Amino acid sequence: MSEPSVSLNQAAYDRLRSDIIACRLAPGQRLTEKQLAAEFTISIAPLRDALIRLDQEGLIRTLPRKGYQVAPLTPKSIDDLFVVWQIVGPELIRLGISQASEDQIVAAREAFDELDRQVEQEGGARSAIRDIAVVNATFEVLAEATGNAYLISIFQRLMGDMSRIRALLLTSDRTITPSGAGEHWVRHILTERDPDKAATHARRYIQDVHQHVLQAIVRWPSVMSSEVSVIPSR
Q: Do 33 and 93 belong together in one domain?
């Protein structure tokens, strides 16, 4: 009897999370249960469950007696995100490379190989958007390879906002060139499997993307004008 309810809860969560990650629901946008129920044609109960889950993930903020708000992205929060990622990312890569099984290394390569196939089919150059996407997919496999629940949790929390930043890059008219040329650093670290060198490559990549994003955010109205609501302490 409980299966339909679980399915509805998951469907509401997946739809809402997808719209937030893709920035169809913009950073800082106010939301109400009634508005979302009408838009998604779904009942309040599963929607409320989805909002609670997304609040726990940091993608939604619950505003007492005011509804909800898509977690804002501001220049400072984006800068802070990258500062944390520069600390966590390289060490996650170091540990993941050292502990990954052969099957996990193969899985990590597949995301990058898919990028190569897409570029070849379209006859175009690699884009920064795809570059970030494939690196994040590789990081996801290596995060699982660490076997460290805390690292995996931190990674998942950071990747929600990293995915929103990637979506916002799609709306920017600034051309951002992916770092490096020739042999991609991801392919290199997966082939070489040297944990220390892998961490160095990851640190350099994150710093490079950080600088590109800081240059681009002035073209993102949803970031520059994002409403930051103060949530009263409990």
A: no
